[in-house]
Amino acid sequence: MNQPRSLSRRTTLAALAGAALAGTSAVPAAASDRRGRTVRFATFNASLNRGTQGALVSDLSTPDNAQAKNAAETIQRVDPDVLLINEFDYVESGAAVRLFLRNYLAVGQNGAKPVRYRYHFTAPVNTGVASGLDLDGRGGAVTTPGSDAYGQDAYGYGWFPGQYGMVVLSKYPIDTRAVRTFQRFLWRDMPGNIMPTDYYSAEAQAVLRLSSKSHWDVPVCVGHETVHFLVSHPTPPTFDGTEDRNGRRNHDEIRLWADYIGGRRRGSYLYDDKGRRGGLRPGARFVLAGDQNADPYDGDSYDHAIRLLLDHPAVSLPKVPPTSKGAVEAARLQGGANTSHIGDPAYDTADFGDTAPGNLRVDYVLPSRGLIPASNGVFWPTSDDPLYRLVGGGANVPTSDHRLVWQDVRVV
Prior knowledge:
Helix content is 17%, strand content 17%. The chain is an alpha+beta fold. The strands form 2 sheets. The protein has a 6-stranded mixed beta sheet with strand order 3-4-2-1-11-10, covered by helices on one side. A 5-stranded mixed beta sheet has the order 5-6-7-8-9, with no helix packed on it. The chain is globular. The protein starts with 36 loop residues before the first strand and ends with a strand.
């Protein structure tokens, strides 16, 4: 397989000159020019998940939850036009989204300017939805929410339905009627899938859904143009055994998007939750975003799964991936597993355990051909920056162990 179009760990910071200014408090604003409208797309695993159902609504009902304030300020500092938030508990009524918009994003945090999103989209996810089967083979099916055992037997790991959900926020109109979701697509229906059939029973294979949360195609109307925001949050390729069920699932969750953008023949097997078949129309423009839980070089992903997207001919990568100086500093100060990594630490987007797996690049915003990549960055301030309080030093996690990643694109 071709190497992904990124630089090695030995790349000097000098070679990153002209790349994003993320990692400092001065994130440049997106700006349009005569070549088209510039739109800032972003992804942020904000860790706005809670251990019990209803707890997120309770936390967001007042404007003083410290972690939510930090998440809101992070978003305000970068000011994306279109944003995916991963790990935002799904609430059927939409109450959690409305509360976060009103009580946090619309309120300036610590001198940051309020940010308002007129449009949003959220939908059910597989996390915490009972399968009714003993998926992990540990003493029968658990169907009562509220425990690790229940999460292990759910379609996607979660202690209650909707935990670790997703939401898309946008300053541009969303064509909600044209949204496609793939929550119920069955893993077995992907040709050539790598499901560990020796691990799962025949009953489990017959019903197991591929997406651990969901895969959404959210069309965003930018002027007279449509950009498909393709968002997901594949399962981490860990927390399993020698069968590597999570690593294999992560791979095929990423592969779903590679097939979806790969042309009529490649995506012909896909069907969405409304029964519509096939992938994205050839030539349609898209931005693919999310916490993919896969690094192109390091970590535990199966067969370098993210390279299915980084090397995809329909993707138009920027000359330099999103970077930050804070990630470089963190890898140096924390040491541990980071010292043996192959990938350049400037591209890291998550501050994980120093022993294993170390800090990784797992969050992505990837534009398609037909869109012109411009500025980008990872919001990861260094320890001498006043905004360092939003990211902490690894052991201290004031907001999330992931960083907000953004990519400007010109829509012409």
